[in-house]
Amino acid sequence: MREIKFRGRRLGTGDWVYGDLQSQAIPLAAILTYDQCEGYGDIIPVTPRTVWQYTGLEDVDGVPIYEGDIVESRDEKGEGKRIIGEIVWCESVAAFIGVHAEGQGWLNEGDPTKPTRLSYTRVIGNKYQNPEL
Fold first, then answer.
1. How confident is the model at residue 105 (pLDDT cuts 50, 70, 90)?
2. φ/ψ of residue 108, rounded to 5
């Protein structure tokens, strides 16, 4: 089963908080933290525009990939043209996809039926902290 979790930037400190999204906190956003040993922890208010869902995937370095992350990808040999894009939810295919930063096409060579090659994909930032990417 796919793990459903979220992250957001804590109000006040800007630290990343990971856990379950708390819908009763709307119009604000909050994350309910979870610890493997301790169980559920605190409900922490977060900046709504920084709340992104975990895709269930990890990059080449084992870094969890979240919606809103900026990734770089290369061809199947890990070589060739460096493609930079943002991870977004695509309603029409009901999946997280990588879209070129310029908004032109997909990270998977423009073919939505081809998966992005995660073995050559690396998280290099996110749209909140690195809007220049």
1. low
2. -90, 55
Delimit the domains of the chain by residue range.
6-50, 54-126
Whether cis (ω within 30° of 0) applies to the bond prior to 27 is: yes
CB 69 within 8 A of CB 79: no
* pLDDT over 70 percentage in the chain: 68
Query: Coil, strand, or helix at residue 40?
Result: strand
Separation in Å, CA 11 to CA 33, 37, 53, 67 = 14, 25, 18, 20
| Average pLDDT over the chain, rounded to an integer | 75
Question: Amino acid letter at 60?
Answer: V
What would the two tokens of residue 88 be?
């977004």
Q: Tens digits of per-residue pLDDT, 14-63?
A: 888 888 887 665 566 777 776 655 656 778 888 888 888 888 888 888 89
Q: In what order do the strands lie in the sheet with 39-46?
A: 39-46, 29-35, 16-21, 6-9, 52-58, 64-66
pLDDT at position 124: 92
CATH no. of 54-126: 2.30.30.290
Are 69 and 123 in contact, with CB atoms under 8 Å apart?
A: yes
